[in-house]
Structures
1.
Amino acid sequence: MTQPTVTNRIKALERSLGLPLLERLPGGVRPTRAGRSILEQAREILRLSGHVRRIADA
């Protein structure tokens, strides 16, 4: 995925949720409090989906 694609998808997600996920700084970005919380949940979803996949493959 290209950087502009990633940026556009993050901005679309922020619009959809109605809150910023990243704090844009002169030297880059850092996650907001909401962004950190959502990232934790997203990681858990990926972990569980991998678990479901392993069960289905067994």
2.
Amino acid sequence: MKVSELQDIKQRYKIVGNCASLNHALDVALQVAPTDLSVLIVGESGVGKEVIPRVIHDSSPRRRGKYFAINCGSIPEGTIDSELFGHVKGSFTGAIGDSPGYFGAADKGTLFLDEVGELPLATQARLLRVLETGEYIPVGATDVRKTDVRVVAATNVNMQRAISEGRFREDLYYRLNSIPIHMPPLRERGDDIPLLFRFFAMQMAEKYKMEKVVLTDGARTMLMKYKWPGNIRQLKNVTEQISILSPQREITPEVLSEFIPQDLETTQLVSMTHSGDSDHSFESEREILYKILYELRGHVNELTQEIAELKKKLNATANTPAVAPPAQNYLPRVTEDAEAEEYVEPNNSLNLEAIEKQMLIKALERNNGNRKKAAEELGYSDRTLYRRLKQYGLEDY
């Protein structure tokens, strides 16, 4: 593609930047536009994937047809089939009339399926059929309908991982991925970063009739060192914040540091510690579960005691004898009181005593044997902790 053609495309769609990977993505989009091949655009969230399908549609023979952009991740699973493939009147509650769906309405046009990796598996099967045959059945209908739609999809999901985890159909992936286009993250676009900052600053100045903010050399370097996990969307937000909130119109590193994280090398929106799956421990999660289970047992015991006491009061009220019954009838209900004192279901597979004992040991170990701190962590009183330690033979801890 000639440089003049590339610049025309960028001006038309307000695409800012000159990095090689961006130019390559636009070049591929223009080459594939005259065909009907499916295109899969891959890239991180916020890199500007949505501009590519618009370029493809407007440069294709379908440009006079309709163009729809659908965010698959924003449509509830229960209605997405109806949204995409339509429905007939009465097919479900609220279906007061027939609907052609996007595939029906976009006949002879283009559909952009953003976040296609979020589609439910059942919808993926329907999508595969319409891509292969051009046929689909609306929800509640029995007749097969035809459509001629060009599909361009985009995702920020690792599709190979999604396939291996059973979340995405492999056959659909290869059908969508006839022509792959990779959109580069902002951190790989080098000098495009200050160019985009200047572009967004100019937009803000023109829109709100204010003086444009400009970067010093130090701020420009700082801007390019930051990794921009939110990509272009994040850079635009930061530029807008600076334009509105900064009293200084010449932006120095000191001013810029107030609007982006101090860790310039981070790729996270919030500084956080990360470790690989191989180093992950589920110890804390297990201990939390132990504690929840034990507290649940405590609630069951309390409820059982209240029920037993209520039953005794009701029996005493309803069965007050006029003449005192034989003395043996006044024997205490040892079994019921024992159950009320502490209820433990027979053959309890969870073995709550063992769980509580393990929880006690772990709490003591974490607190270097300090019983007071262990009791506070478990939510026990000192007296309860002592009683439990004695019960489980842990007095020496």
3.
Amino acid sequence: MKRREIYSAAGLMEYISEVGFLPLLAGGIAGFSAEEAVTDDCRYVVLPDGGWDWPLWKWKGEIVTEGDCVYGKFFGGKAGFISRRWWPDFCNYRRSRHPRPEEGTIEEAILTTLGQQGSLITRQLRAACGFDGPKMRSRFDSYVTRLQMGCHIVTEDFVYPTDRHGREYGWGWSLLTTPEALLGHQACTTQRTPQQSHDRMAEHLRQLLPQATDRQIEAIIG
């Protein structure tokens, strides 16, 4: 992939719509990430006063709420974007590999709770599911990540704490929901079989990433 000189959230939204699949941070395929697509000025930088600035990170909420894409931990447990044009196929294939959890499992309880509440930040969802012990955070987060990998949970927006002046600060918390609640049931389905969805995505990704190996392509598709 050729590096783009993207310097705004709007530019990145257009790019995501064009490529269809885009991890947030750099990984195994050179150039295949939002981090590598933006200009140097939009990357993470430590400020002289010890603070930080990262325009790309700050764009996430705007892109998720206004862009034509879906955001979640879709790529090997790492975050990224899927355009809505490709979401039905991606969701179709991933759910064939990771079907809805069986009744009585922790994952099923998480989905049921989220379905009843509509949307919750991770710590609220964790408390609602009874995972409020001192050593349960990482265990719970692993369940949520697996559900995102299976396209059962996505990020609706980001919530930030505010200081006494009403200014947002920190890294923000993901506001989680189900794809059906966010997009509607029809946007999460296709008439294609899972294998047809797989083959369609694979063909697109091979054209997009001619330098990628078959194994890397399969890792994206999941």
